[in-house]
Please model this.
Amino acid sequence: MLRRLRSSRDDGTRTFAAPREGPFHVEDLVESERRAGVELALIVVVGVVVCVLAIVYRLPEWLLDRLDPGRDLDTNGLLALLVVAPLGAVVFATRRYRDAIRAQRELTRLSLHDPLTGLPNRRYLRAVLPGATRHARRLNTRVGVLFVDLDGFKAVNDTWGHEVGDRLMRAVADRLAEGAGPDRFVARFAGDEFVVLDPAPAAPEQSERLARELVDLLEIPFEFGEDRIRISASVGIAFADPNSDVDEVLRDADTAMYAAKGTPRRVTVFDPTLRSRLTPANAERRLEQALEAGEFRLFYQPLVALESGRMVGVEALLRWAHPERGLLHPPDFLPALEDTGLIVPVGRWVVEEAARRARHWAEIAEPGGHPLRVTLNVSPRQLAQSDFVDLLRDVLTRTGADPAQLYVELTETALIADVHTIWHAVEGARTLGVGMALDDFGTGFSSLTHLRDFEPSLVKLDRSFVARMGHSPADDTILRHVVALARGLGITTLAEGITDADQVRRLLDFGCQLGQGFYFADPQPAPVIDALLERQARVHQVPTAPDPATVVSAVRRDVPRR
Model:
C-alpha cells in the first residue's frame, strides 16, 4: 500500500510520501545535490588525511627541515595551521553543501508545485502516475484518473476580476484536497483543470462514486465576504495500469470530461468510442468550418397546451449536420463550443434563425390565434456579452419578428456563474418585449429566489419531477404546490419529459398548463412545424372542456415518429 499517497501541499514541510520503490522520489531529479555531496566528501577526505599526517607523522617538522635544516624553529604554529585549515575547509564545504541542497530543494519544490494553489503540478503528476500503476497492479487493480474541469470559471474572472478568481481557485484546490482525502493525489493540471488519482479503487464504481462526490462538493457556494460564488464541475474518468501511456491516459480522461459536460450527472467514464468526439486539440478549427459551411441546424420540439392538445410553441434545439458522422446532438459538440468561445457567434446565428422562423410561423398561424412562441437556449457566456441586448434589437428589426414570440431560456445551473450580469441582460431583453423562461426548475440553487428576482414568464418543471409523479405522495405534493406557487405569481408552467397519457392527466389535475416531451413529439425540422401549423390553421374546432382521460394530442397524431 502506498504510504499515504498524498497531494502534498507546497508548505515547505515535505514533498511526497512513498515507499522506497514507490511512485516517485524527488531526489531522483536532483543531480546537483549529488555533485555537492561528492565535493564535500572529497574535501573531508583530504582534510582528514592532512590532519593525520600533520599530527602523527610530524609533517610540519618534516617540512621545516626540508626548507631550512639549519634552523631550529618551533613547529607548533605550523602544526596548528595544518590542522585548523582542513577543518575550516570542511566547515566551509559543509555549509556550501547545505546551501546547495536547500537551493536545489527549493527549485525542485517550485518546479513540482503550482504556485497559486500549492498543489502538485502537471510535471509532478506525470512523475507519480507510473509508480502508482505499478503499486495498483500488486493489488490487482488499476489507478483511477479523474480529470476535473470547472464549468463557468471564466465568467467569474470576467465578472469579479482575477483577484477573486485566484481566491476561488485556491478555495477549489482546498475543497478538492479535502474531499479526495489523504490517500489520494490531487494536482492542478492547467488553468481551471485538476486531476485526482484514486490509487487503488476496489472497483471502477468507487472512482465513479468519488467523482460524483467531488461534483456535489464543488456545487456548494463559495463565500468571499458578501459575495457568494457558485460554480460547477465536470469529471472524466480513465483507468491506468503499468502498460498505459501517461499522455494517452490523461488524454482519455480529458475526452471523457468533455463528454461529461453534456450529461445531467456531469461524470463520464472513458469509452473508446468517445475518441471520435471533439476535443480541444481539434475543436476550434472544425467548429469554425461548420459555422462557415452552414452545417448547424435548428430543430424544434413542440410545446403543447395540455387541455387542448394543440401546439402553442416550440423549443429551438441546436444540432450539427456533420458531413461524416451524421446529425450530432449538443453533448457531442456544445462543451467544445463553450471552451473555444465559438458559442458566441453560433449563438448569434441561433437567435437570428429562430427569429426568422418565428416571423414565418406568425404569417401561417391560424387567423385570430396566438403567435407561436419560440424559446431559445442562450449560453451564460453569450448573455455576458455587452452587446447581447443590441444583438436582440438588431435581429428583431431585421427579421420583423414579434418580440412577444421569443423567450430567452435559462437553466437554473446557468445562473450560478454570474447572477448580476445575467439579470441585467434579461432585463434588457424584457424592455424589448422578449420573455424569459426558467428551464429545469427545481434542480438548481435558490429556485424560489430566482422566481422573485428574474420574474420569468414561463417556468419549465424539470423532467425529474414528472418522472417521479405517482411514486410517492411527497413527490406529488411538492409538484402540486410548485405549480400552484407559479400560477399564483402569474407564471405559466410547463412540464418537461412527458412520456405517457397518465402523466398528462396528473399534470392537468395539478393545474399545469403546458407540456413537452416524446409523448407529443421529438424535436423536428422546421418544415414539419410548418405542416403542423398549417393543419391547425385549417382546423378551428378547439375542445373547451375536455375530459382529461380523452385528451388526444393533435401534435402527437400528426408528427412523424423518429
In short: The two ends are 53 Å apart (CA to CA). The domain at 295-539 is CATH 3.20.20.450 (TIM Barrel). Residues 262 and 337 are 12 Å apart (CA to CA).
